[in-house]
Amino acid sequence: MNDMIIVLRSLRVRLLASSVTVAMVAIAVALLLVLMSLREAASQAFRRGTGNIHLLVSADASPLVGVLNGLFYANAPANPIAWGKYEEIKNSFPWQWAIPTQLGDSFRGSPVMATTPDFLSNFEPVSGQPFQYASGKAFAEDFQVVAGSQAASEHGLSVGQKIVFSHGTGGSREGGHQHADHPYEVVGILKPTGSAHDRALFTNLQSTWIIHAEDRRENAASAEHEAEAEEDHAGHDHAHEHEHEHEHVEAADLTDADKLMTGILLRLPTRPGSDASASIAAQFDRLRRDMAITVAQPAQQIGRLMAIVGDIDWLFLAMAVVVLVSSAISIMLAMVSSMELRRRQVAVLRVLGASAWRVFALAITESTLIGLIGAILGAILALGGSAIASTILAQRIGITVAGTIDPRSAALVMAGAVVLAALAGIIPAIKSYRTPVARHLRPIA
């Protein structure tokens, strides 16, 4: 009888135990491959999400927080930058462009970035790949908005639709106080970029200044009227009625105090075809001396983030390796237990002419086959797991992480799983090799 047929029949007889052992190998291999794949893919996705800016100015607590808030929409920055500071920075150097941004509003949980038209025309969400429109065009007037691909899909937005923003990002889809007096018209839908900008909406900075100026003035007027009412109530027998109408603010009414922003995107002049500038270090050092602002080099900060996350990655990889070793131990224990029950079968094989080395080889082949089947199933499972993880990341944070498995990594992990399985079969094979023939052929009482 062919040795492989013997091995396959042995596995079929112990189908449940063999299936559980194969599943453990498959899970360990899949876990290792998914972690290795997403680790590198996530690093590339974050680096490409910073786009073509050289410096990011904010008033956040640290450069990393500024990058996460300003480019990845982690949270709405708490501290504003005054218009005068923007003018000072803009005029301090012949930048290629200096784009102001403001975050703080949202639409059903999706962040809204208020900026200038230069953001959509000059900023590249992925270096070398500018924004492109699936439909419509860029905003050109106040109270117009352009939606990122994911935001448009999630909320069912289309060109010509009227929407209302909410103040604050909030955790719910309802957000905070709504700017109901100023609906925005959707004038453009962007194509997917594979970056966090896909889940945002973009509007004119002046529009945001107007609605926030109205809110501030209305709140101030309400507070004043409440104070007057309390004063009247305390000092007079008759009541005074105050009629308060909502005060509309025009662009011409805006003051420098109304013109606030949360970030400034800066790009230095470069040679055609180059993304680097010899002046970056000098300008970075000059700006960071200003204690009123926080200056970040996005690529550098993402490198720091990946270094921090990398320590956690190694922990997960170590855990996956432990699971893989545990699966090898499970193979050994399952086969040792199996050999105890199959000593009579081994003795019969020896009587029929099978050498001790052939019996030894059968045991090794069986454990190796378990490892091989588990490794193949694990690779298939890893492909599906990476695709699912990639979809979830794109939906939750708007970052496209390629759900692919590196063939070299897959080959290395699968080979390691097979070798571990083969090594796990050595002890059961030795026990099989040393099976006393005469004792195990005695009649069973």
The helix-and-strand class reads: alpha+beta
Main beta sheet: strand number and arrangement? 11 strands, mixed
Rg is 33 Å
Q: Which parts are unreliable, with pLDDT below 50 for 5 consecutive residues or more?
A: 171-175, 237-244
Specify the number of helices. 14
Range of helix content: 40-55%
The residue-averaged pLDDT reads 80
The total tally of domains equals 2
Order of helices and strands: HHEHEHEEHEEHEEEEHEEHEHHHHHH
General form = elongated
N→C terminal distance:
29 Å
Number of beta-strand segments: 13
Q: Strand content of the residues, in percent?
A: 5-15%
Care to describe what's here?
By secondary structure, the chain is an alpha+beta fold. The protein has two domains: 3-46 and 305-440, no CATH class; 55-130 and 198-296, no CATH class. The chain is built from 14 helices and 13 strands. The strands form two sheets. Strands 1, 3, 4, 5, 6, 7, 8, 9, 10, 12 and 13 form an eleven-stranded mixed β-sheet that branches. It is elongated, with a radius of gyration of 33 Å. Residues 171-175 and 237-244 have low confidence and may be disordered.
